[in-house]
Design goal:
The longest helix has 24 residues, at 3-26. The strands form four sheets. The protein has a five-stranded parallel beta sheet with strand order 2-5-8-1-9. It has a two-stranded antiparallel ribbon with strand order 3-4. Strands 6-7 form a two-stranded antiparallel ribbon. Helix 1 crosses helix 3 and helix 1 packs across helix 8 (212-222). It has helices at residues 3-26, 34-46, 60-70, 87-90, 124-136, 171-174, 188-198, 212-222, 229-243, 262-278, 286-297, 305-309, 314-324, and strands at residues 49-53, 75-79, 91-96, 101-106, 113-117, 138-141, 144-147, 153-158, 177-182, 256-258, 302-303. The protein is built from 13 helices and eleven strands. The protein folds into two domains: 3-183 and 211-219, Rossmann fold (3-Layer(aba) Sandwich), CATH 3.40.50.300; 225-324, Magnesium chelatase subunit I, C-Terminal domain (Helicase, Ruva Protein, domain 3), CATH 1.10.8.80. With 328 residues, the chain is an alpha/beta fold. The mean pLDDT is 88. A hairpin with a 2-residue loop joins strand 6 and strand 7 (144-147).
């Protein structure tokens, strides 16, 4: 084993140790929901934004707040409402009558971790105000652009069952989220533990376990995770199958309006690398790609009217593709 390989392995093991501290501390407040927590850590590792979707009461907001409490980073929570304005997110220019100048008043988006709570409760113009920040990692106020300090991560939540008073995310914005994670109900044992902890009356106070420099250190380790050429071809097959399913023996051409963009290809690889880091491995396995694929693809496969009539969504299309495309 070469010196460089040893150093890469050491960095990945160190990153896994840092993230395990975060996971253990968050686990003091959040019962179960391992998949959700792993996906939040994937977002933290890669810098990819995460959209959490689930019915009320599944600890979406609690998980994000607990993650923020565990990190020594600047955190801001924005409650999205129908009367919210773009300036309430990004900030605005303040006029000084003494000298006739304008100064920038920065909004809550200027933070390391931003919780966009119930993001589908605000109209499209407010949702769009996040686009520049999410994609370009900067905010323009007047004539000046202000760079957001790394790490910068938007963690958004939304409720899928309520339609009145909500504004579904446009495809252009949902595509900016690396992952769309669907949150399920806890199992019986987990719910019993929730019931037991509820008797304590108050949640445990979490303490920061990881500094900003350590978060950036884990991101540097990500680049050292090896992705075999056969696995890269597998990723390309998965994404191509969303665009030309007939080439892979899938009779679903009439169900798919638009397939996944190249952004999905990049996020599949980076997400698989992040899962490898969480496991302390310096290489990606096919299982990593299959595990992260539903979260990367479900909001990037746009189905046709025919599919909607049959009750088929992007997640179902992704499931069929994963079953059909050969694993190396």
């Amino acid at each position: 084993m070469t010196v460089d390989t040893k150093e890469t392995t050491r960095r990945i093991e160190r990153a896994a140790e840092i993230l395990s501290r975060v996971s253990a501390e968050v686990g003091r407040a959040v019962v179960g929901q391992r998949t959700m927590m792993d996906r939040l850590l994937v977002g933290l590792l890669t810098g990819g934004h995460v959209l959490l979707e689930g019915v009320p009461g599944l600890a979406k907001t609690l998980a994000v707040r607990s993650l923020a409490d565990t990190l020594a980073l600047k955190f801001r929570r924005i409650q999205f409402t129908p009367d919210l304005l773009p300036a309430d997110l990004t900030g605005t220019l303040i006029y000084n009558p003494r000298d006739g100048s304008f100064s920038a008043k920065r909004g809550p988006v200027f933070a390391h971790l931003v919780l966009a709570d119930e993001i589908n409760r605000a109209p499209a113009k407010v949702q769009a105000a996040l686009l520049e920040a999410m994609q370009e990692k900067q905010v323009t106020l007047g004539d000046d652009s202000h760079v957001l300090e790394e790490p910068f991560l938007v963690l958004a939540t939304q409720n899928p069952i309520e339609q009145e008073g909500t504004y579904p995310l446009p495809e252009a914005q949902s595509d900016r989220f690396m992952l769309k994670v669907k949150i399920g109900y806890p199992d019986r044992n987990e719910e019993k533990e929730i019931l037991r902890r509820a008797g304590l009356g108050v949640l445990p106070a979490l303490t920061p376990q990881v500094s900003r420099d350590e978060v950036l250190e884990t991101r540097q380790a990500l680049a050292g995770v090896y992705v075999d050429d056969k696995l890269q071809e597998y990723v390309l097959d998965l994404v191509t199958a969303t665009r030309r399913p007939g080439d892979y023996g899938l009779a679903i051409d009439t169900l798919v309006a638009y397939g996944a963009s190249p952004r999905a290809t990049l996020f599949l690889v980076r997400g698989a690398q992040a899962l490898a880091v969480l496991d302390g491995r310096p290489y990606v396995l096919p299982e990593d790609i299959k595990a992260i694929a539903p979260d990367v693809l479900r909001h990037r496969i746009h189905v046709s009217y025919e599919a909607e009539a049959e009750g088929v969504d992007g997640e179902e299309i992704a499931r069929r593709i994963l079953e059909r495309v050969r694993v190396p």
